[in-house]
Amino acid sequence: MLSNDCIFCKIIKGEIPSAKVYEDEQMVVFKDIEPKAKVHLLAVPKEHFKLLSELNAERASLLSHMLQKIPAIAAENGCAGGYRLVINQGDDAGQTVFHLHIHIMGGEVLPV
Ligand code: AMP
Ligand code: ZN
To answer: Is the pTM of this model over 0.90?
Structure first.
């Protein structure tokens, strides 16, 4: 289920542009508009929910699929030397888009 007032749902529906590097029936991966690393991608499930605390069996299966796909997607997009995954959860983490997403950052040696 997608939302009408979510920027990532709009990207999934093709209503606003994005620099997509991968898409299948369950997920999309596109470049972050304000990259915080040389390579900064966002992996987004094609279902609108905000938090890991909202996981159910179907959403857990979506995330499992994403985690299985991410290594090859990262390697093909300049992260063969390694990468960092981040999932911001809620206000204290600075989550700004309330559609769960996995940051993929790399392409350089990242600060610890
Ligand atoms: P978070 O702070 O974890 O919610 O991350 C949201 C991320 O989405 C930020 O890194 C933003 O730069 C990124 N972002 C926001 N709008 C867009 C957009 N239209 N296209 C690509 N990335 C975006
Ligand atoms: Zn959404």
So the answer is: yes
